[in-house]
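Hi R.,

Here's the chain you asked about this morning:
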Amino acid sequence: MEYDIDIDALRRDMKDYYGTAMFSGFPMAVMDLSKVERLSDQELVEVVQKNGVDLRKYIV
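And here is the predicted structure, written out as tokens:
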């Protein structure tokens, strides 16, 4: 089954997540943050799924 995902909200939340990690003692999170900014929409969904993010809250 295919769903429409609010990519803008997902990308924003992932940027917040990695940005917070970066300033909380995990400086290597800057690499993940820049990756999130460059990924296509489909690649972003795939990456966050692999990292265990629950996409149900992003379904529109």
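One quick note: The helical segments are 7-22, 29-38, 41-50.

Cheers,
M.
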